[in-house]
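Progress against Task 2.4 (sequence-to-structure conversion) is shown through the following example record, which the project officer requested during the mid-term review.
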Amino acid sequence: MAARKKKARRSSKPVELIISKSRTKGAVKKCNVGGEFYGALDGKVREMIKAAEARAIGNKRKTLKAVDL
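Structure tokens generated for the chain above:
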């Protein structure tokens, strides 16, 4: 008898998106938005926030400003 494969465990709680799907879709005028786009966009936004936070801390500030982007 063949050995059973273990199923990959999924996290019980999906990651909550920072971005709004409906607002993202509303901002797109001439194209459709694929389902994987939202996760990729959310990832880029999280990277930008993390970099902005590091810059603010490096400048001895606790407030994020537009210049940090």
